[in-house]
Specification:
The protein is globular and about 65 Å long. 7% of the residues are buried. It has 273 residues and is mainly alpha-helical. The chain contains 14 helices and no strands.
Length: 273
């Protein structure tokens, strides 16, 4: 399918090619950057995640300049991953871009084809059907609850995935009769974690911690709270209080006793009220 070029297509292509050339130079054995040269797809995973979160933070701030900058950082990760793959003839950035373009065209037959849709439900159904065909899967299999939950666990950050899994499972009958049941489960998991920490292996301790966190996510769901937003808020609050402590302090934080830090913490808490 041929699409009409946009007004700024030439400038966009020039800017994109410039970024590709810059990243290629950074990876060049002849005068490239030692840090970039030693990176692998696996070593860059934390940066992909970090940059994605920074994009979200910028969007939430509403600062268009910050959004553009953070999107650039994320785009750089896409180009860098593609550059590394091209060096071993796996794929190049052109395949990445064309691949997603063709996928969008296939999955939007109501836009790029002659399919007529009446509502959003039909659009969603067509999307799922086409997606299943692309992957060689049976549509009935993709509609199973376990299949959908597996997708959340694979593609979303753990806390967000936990909430989505909890919501979908509850909607399909995996639910307590009342909030007392959720709290009973929470205390049960807390006791099991305490026991594991005192008597069991690290593997079991990890498993029990996961069970407790998942139950706490269910508590949040019951009270219509956002666990990701709550934790993000607490992270920011902790940092704000630490900033106040450092402002009030006349020496490095690690030189204070626990009692002194506790007093400074209380002062910071009062100052931020």
């Amino acid at each position: 399918m041929s699409l009409e070029p946009t007004v700024n297509s030439s400038a966009n292509l020039i800017a994109m090619q410039h970024l590709i050339d810059v990243v290629a130079k950074l990876r060049s054995p002849d005068g490239g950057c030692p840090w970039d040269l030693k990176q692998t797809p696996e070593s860059l995973i934390p940066y992909v995640i970090e940059e994605a979160y920074e994009v979200v933070d910028a969007i939430q701030s509403g600062d268009s300049k910050a959004i553009a900058e953070e999107l650039g950082d994320l785009l750089m990760q896409v180009v860098l991953q593609s550059q590394i793959a091209s060096e071993t003839n796996q794929f190049a950035i052109a395949e990445v871009a064309e691949g997603i373009a063709q996928k969008l065209i296939r999955r939007h037959p109501h836009v790029f084809g002659d399919v007529k849709t009446e509502n959003m439900d039909e659009i969603h159904q067509n999307w799922e059907r086409i997606k299943a065909e692309e992957k060689g899967e049976d549509l009935a299999t993709t509609q199973r609850l376990s299949y959908k939950l597996k997708r959340y666990a694979r593609s979303l950050p753990p806390l967000t995935a936990g909430m989505k899994i909890s919501q979908k499972a509850a909607a399909n009958g995996f639910e307590w009769e009342n909030a007392d049941g959720v709290w009973a489960k929470f205390h049960e998991e807390l006791d099991e974690l305490r026991h594991a920490l005192e008597h069991e292996s690290k593997e079991n301790q990890q498993a029990e911690l996961g069970d407790l966190l998942f139950t706490l996510i269910n508590v949040a769901r019951w009270y219509d709270l956002d666990p990701s937003g709550a934790l993000q808020s607490t992270n920011h609050k902790f940092i704000q209080r630490l900033e106040v402590i450092e402002t009030l302090s006349d020496r490095p934080i690690d030189s204070f006793t626990a009692e002194e830090l506790d007093n400074l913490w209380k002062q910071a808490k009062e100052k931020l009220k």
